[in-house]
Design brief:
34% of the residues lie in helices and 39% in strands. Helix 1 crosses helix 3. It is globular, with a radius of gyration of 16 Å. 21% of the residues are buried.
Length: 149
């Protein structure tokens, strides 16, 4: 059984600014309402240590394409019980505008039991993360532009 969460938000900043914030995982506790801890080298094939919404696990980085895509696959206890492919994708629209796509595909035996929790609790956390990232990126861009002027 599978289920998907798909969220997105327009950000008035370029993909480099958004990417820099997204990949500065040491600062996640300062702004990220969903991912409280993400440790390890962000590189395809590497294992990370994560604490997300109270759960601890060790996801494997599936994709790491600078300024474009970062994704991982995590599992709860054993493969096939409750797996998640989490993705962050940045779609560049212009020099100072992009769309941030934040999605996850859940699969496994526990998915039917977790569906309501995913819809009621996890979707709002994805949307909060998106909004905090937007605020941080737009503030960073505004700050760096005002420093130039």
């Amino acid at each position: 059984m599978t289920t998907k969460i798909n969220t997105k938000i327009s950000i008035n900043a370029n993909s480099e600014v958004v990417w820099r914030i997204l990949t500065d995982t040491q600062k996640y506790p300062e702004w990220n309402p969903l991912i409280h801890c993400l440790e390890g080298e962000l590189k395809e094939g590497n294992k990370l240590k994560a604490r997300i919404n109270g759960m601890k696990f060790k996801p494997k980085v599936l994709n790491f394409k600078p300024n474009k895509l970062f994704s991982w696959k995590g599992r709860f206890l054993i493969p096939g019980l409750f797996d998640g492919e989490h993705s962050f994708e940045i779609e560049e629209l212009s020099n100072n505008k992009c769309v941030f796509h934040h999605y996850e595909k859940f699969s496994g035996l526990l998915v039917p039991l977790m569906r309501k929790k995913l819809e009621n609790e996890v979707v709002p956390l994805f949307e909060q993360l998106n909004l905090k990232l937007k605020e941080k990126a737009e503030h960073a861009l505004h700050t760096s532009l005002s420093d130039i002027a």
